[in-house]
Fold Caspase-3.
Amino acid sequence: SMSQPRQSRALVIVNTDFRSSDGDAVFGTRRGAKREAEKLSNVLSRLNYKVKLTHNKTAKEIEDLYRQECCCEHGEYFVSIISSHGEEGVIFGCDSEPVKLTRIFQILSSEKRPVLTKIPKIFFIQACRGREFDHGVVVECDSGEPEREPDCFSGYLSIPPQTVVMFACSPGYVAFLNVFGSMFLQALLKVLEGEERHLALNRLMTRVNWEVAFCCQARGTYEGCKEMPCFVTNLLQEVFPFSA
């Protein structure tokens, strides 16, 4: 009999409550993030991923979770969703300690554990990448360029082979989250629940960009502020990770 192909794995990390080393609450509580992560986990399960959903992990625990993945049996793809506070190139553990994304990539592409080096590793990262607000640009007009050009490529150059990273926002900017969830992961959820999940990954991510750019706008304090996701990939072939 034909043996069943191994199941692809997904690791979802969502941090909603943050403490400093002396136990004080820092950053805001990320309301809405936990329910959204649960919904994404359910969708990935339906698309035949073996999902590990974790909540409020410290920086060290986050690194350990990726180390554990290196010892697991893997299918065709590895997907990871991280929802937390962040800065450029960094996400925060619930202990408010930083984890460099390059550190996570290194762990997964370690020659010592070649199981993960060969398969596409796909990251969706919902976290701020700085403190700038994106007020959007009027499409018809030539001016309205941002005041400063963030150093867009610094973080991108260190992506190892077979890796795709999609960020909620452009370098230097904040990412929005409210009680209903985040613009970015809500758009990803919508795409994965619909027919677009059958698209090649780069087209699927472009679709998420479109959803956030045209269908999302901050309300309240940041009325009218926008968010522009972006992705970087060095895959050499089209992949269809969600076309189960």
Summary: The chain has one domain: 9-133+157-234. Confidence is low (pLDDT under 50) at residues 137-153. The CA atoms of residues 5 and 29 lie 40 Å apart.
